[in-house]
Automatic annotation (TrEMBL):
Modified residues (N6-(pyridoxal phosphate)lysine): 35
Enzyme class: isomerase
The keyword Isomerase belongs to this UniProt entry's keyword annotation: yes
Cofactor(s) the protein requires to work: pyridoxal 5'-phosphate
Alphabetized UniProt keyword annotations: Isomerase, Pyridoxal phosphate
Species of origin: Marinobacter psychrophilus
Protein name: Alanine racemase
Active-site feature positions: 35, 256
All residue ranges annotated as the Alanine racemase C-terminal domain in the record: 235-359
Example of a GO cellular component annotation carried by this entry: cytosol
Function: Catalyzes the interconversion of L-alanine and D-alanine. May also act on other amino acids.
Family as reported in the entry's similarity comment: Belongs to the alanine racemase family.
E.C. number: 5.1.1.1
Amino acid sequence: MPRGSFALIDSKALQHNYQVACQRSGQSSAMAVIKADGYGHGIAGVARALAAVAPKFAVACIEEAIAIRNAGVGQQPVALLEGVHSEQDLATCIENNFEPALHCDDQLQWLVRAPAAPRIWLKVNTGMNRLGFHTEELAQVMATLAQHQLASKVIGFVTHFACADDERSTMTQQQTERFEKATAPWPELQRSVANSAALFRPGQKLFGWSRPGIMLYGASPIVGTSAAELGLKSVMTLQAPLISTRLLQPGDSVGYGADWVASKPTRMGIVALGYGDGYPRHAGTGTPAAIHGQRIQLIGRVSMDMLAVDLSTAPAALNGDPVELWGATVPVDEVAGHAATIGYELLTSVTARVPRRWC
Ligand SMILES: *Cc1c(COP(=O)(O)O)cnc(C)c1O
C-alpha cells in the first residue's frame, strides 16, 4: 500500500486558469508555458489537459518538447524558449513542429549551415540581459537570415520582462517601448512579450501572443496579491497523512535541534512528508498547513521524511487523516513566503518520490 503522500492535480482548475489567461490576453493568443515538467505538475498530464484549448505550448528546451509529443499531444506547435542546444536539434524541430527561439550568433550559424530550418522566434534583449539579440542587432540578423533564404522562417519576435511582477517599477513599460520600436520595421511578423505578471498590468500592450506560465497553476505572479484575488484556482494539493500524534508536556521539545519547546500541554502530529519530498526545509515554526479544511501550523524543523504540526486548533485530528501542505486552503504562495522563496520554486521542487494523481 502506498504511503498516502501525493500531489493531487486538478485538471479542471488548470483549464479554468488557462481561460483566465485567455481573458486577460484579450485579442492575443495564449501559448501555455509548461516547462520544468509543467511547473512540477507533470508535463504529460498538463499538455493533455490543455490540448483541446491551447493553440501553442512553450517550454525551455527540446527535451521538454519531446515529452509533450511522447504524451501523445501532437497537434500544437511547441516554442523552445531557449532555442536548440546543437545544429542536430534543428532537424528534430522540423520533424516535430517545434519553434525554437534564436537568441545568439552560435544558433544563427547553425541555422545558416543546416540543410533545412524550422520556423523560429527571434529573441530580443530589451533589458533582462539574459538571452537575446540587442535591439540594434536585429536588422543585421534579419539581413543574414534573408541572405540565406531564411526570412520566411521567422515567425516573429519575443522578449522577456525583468520586473513585470513589481507594480511600481517602470521597467516593463520601458522594455515594451524598446521592443515595439525595435521590431517596427517588420510589422507583418508576430510579437510576444507577456508572462503571467504582465497579463495583470493595467494598460500593458500584449501584441499577438502572450506566454502565461505560473498563473496556469493557480499561483500568483504578483508579489503581495493572492492567486484567489486574481481569480485563479489552486491546481496542486500537496497532501500527506498524519502518522503519529502525541501530547507534549511543557518543556518537551520537537525534532532535530530540539528547536521548538512546548510552553503548555500541546497535542502534536507527525506528517509523512519532508524535504526529501520537496517540502522546503526553510519553512519554520508557524508555517500554515490544513487538516479537515482547518488551518494548523508547523512546529520545529522539517526533516527529510516528516514534519511536525501543532494540532491545538484541530482537536478531532486522528492518525491517518490527510494534511494539506498547500492547495486550496493554504496557498502555495503563503508557504513560499514562510520559506523566503516563491511559489514557482516550491511547485517545481516537489520530488519524484511524490506521486502525481490527476483528478
Ligand atoms: C517561464 C517563462 C514564461 C512564463 O513566465 P510566468 O512568470 O511563469 O508566467 C514566459 N516567457 C519566458 C521567456 C519564460 O522563460
